[in-house]
Every structure is written in structure tokens, then in C-alpha cells.
Design brief:
single chain, 218 residues, alpha/beta, Aspartate Aminotransferase, domain 2, Aspartate Aminotransferase, domain 1, four-stranded mixed β-sheet, two-stranded antiparallel sheet, 6 helices, globular, binds pyridoxal-5'-phosphate
Length: 218
């Protein structure tokens, strides 16, 4: 599916299912995580930004998997050069310490009155201290550059292996967020869920944690 196909599908939704004036927000992952590591093209995200501006829709970028240097930038949305209205973050935010955050433009973030936003674990001081340490480490250990290097090494290795292994389909990445498709008969349209399960199991037995993702039975 091309960028234009996706935008046409959205226009179709606006025309036949819901008028854009009734859409509060569009939420998108810059790299789809559980859905299979599909990288949103910058021109698609830029078009979404224009569409949201045009119709007064809040653009929410979910950086829960992609944030904090994983894709070679602090946040993956930087690759597209646009500013979201809101951003969600968790996972790497505090280096594994339980912490999640929503950040965004002041006119939205400051809209709830005092006491209008709460949560059982909101603002845990220890988790916040861990998150501050994470920011320092990302900076001092240059983890954005490191993510680019790791991504390049993995992609070169996997594409090299694909030359002699037809079971390896597309290899794609944004920084260190790398996916390798496993397919049957060397055909990109025949995902091999059984091989994926067998490979992740065997890797775990050998001490390597691999995660499968996608919507085709993995
Ligand atoms: C992209 C993405 N968004 C949202 C979530 C949910 O995050 P949380 O568990 O912090 O609510 C996850 C969790 O895996 C995720 O991967």
C-alpha cells in the first residue's frame, strides 16, 4: 500500500464514515510495533500533520516503543520533521522502571483543571529519578548514534544471510528497531508463522530473546 493509498483510505473514511469535524484525535505509531515493525514514511506523517491542522484534529504520536534513542533519534517522529500535539511514552523512558508519560502542547496539557488528571502511581519520585538518569545516559553514551550503528550491523548481517536463506523475506529498520520477515517458498506474501515460532523458541534456548510481531499468526 502506498502513502497515497493510505491517505485516500482516510479521505474515504472522512467522506463515508465520520466527518473530520467529529474526529477528536488521530493516534499513530511512527513505527508500528506489535503490528510488525512497519515504518511510517515521513511523507505520510507530514500529510497527517497537514490533515490534522486542516480539520482541527489532535495528532497523537505513540512513542512507547520507538522513543528514547531506539530509532537513532530521541523520538522517531523527528525523522519526519513534524511536531505532534501529544506524545505518549513509557518502556525505555525510565530504563525499565515503571513509568509512563503523556507530553504535549501547553494548551492541551494545561486544559484540565486542578485535580482533573490523576493516577494511582502518577509522578512516582523514584521512577522520575530513573528517567532523569536515562536521559543523562542517552546523552553521555551517545545512544542515538549507537542505535544507528546497531541497526546498520543487524541489517547488513541479516541481508547477507538472506542471500543464501530464502526463508528470510524483507529486512527493514529505523535505527535499532529492526525486523526480519520469515516467509515460505521465498515469497513475501506467504508469512511463515511456524518457522517464526520455532526460531524464537530456539533462540531463547540459546539465551537470545527475540520478539515476534505482526498480524499473521506469530
Ligand atoms: C506502541 C505501544 N503503545 C502503547 C502501549 C501500552 O503501553 P502501556 O502499557 O504503558 O499502557 C504499548 C505496550 O506494549 C505499545 O507497545
Amino acid at each position: 500500500m502506498s502513502v497515497q493509498d493510505s491517505l485516500d483510505a482516510l479521505e474515504h473514511l472522512f467522506k463515508y464514515d465520520i466527518e473530520p469535524a467529529r474526529v477528536a484525535a488521530i493516534i499513530v505509531e511512527p513505527v508500528m510495533g506489535e503490528g510488525g515493525f512497519y515504518i511510517a514514511p515521513p511523507e505520510f506523517l507530514q500529510a497527517l500533520r497537514r490533515l490534522c491542522d486542516q480539520h482541527g484534529i489532535v495528532l497523537v504520536i505513540d512513542e512507547i516503543q520507538t522513543g528514547f534513542a531506539r530509532t537513532g533519534r530521541m523520538f522517531a517522529i523527528e525523522h519526519a520533521g513534524i511536531e505532534p500535539d501529544l506524545m505518549t511514552m513509557a518502556k525505555s523512558l525510565a530504563g525499565g522502571f515503571p513509568l509512563a508519560a503523556v507530553v504535549g502542547k501547553a494548551h492541551i496539557m494545561d486544559a484540565p483543571g486542578p485535580g482533573g488528571l490523576g493516577g494511582t502511581y502518577a509522578g512516582s519520585p523514584i521512577a522520575c529519578a530513573a528517567a532523569l538518569a536515562v536521559l543523562e545516559v542517552i546523552d553521555s553514551e551517545k545512544l542515538c548514534e549507537r542505535a544507528e550503528q546497531i541497526g546498520r550491523t543487524m541489517v547488513d548481517t541479516l541481508r547477507g544471510a538472506a542471500m543464501s536463506l530464502p526463508a528470510i523475506g524483507e529486512v527493514r529498520n529505523l535505527g535499532a528497531m529492526v525486523a526480519m520477515e520469515l516467509v515460505k517458498n521465498g515469497d513475501a506474501h506467504q508469512p511463515d508463522a511456524d518457522l517464526t515460532k520455532a526460531l524464537t523458541k530456539r533462540a531463547a534456548e540459546k539465551g537470545l530473546v527475540l520478539l515476534s510481531a505482526g498480524c499473521t499468526g506469530t
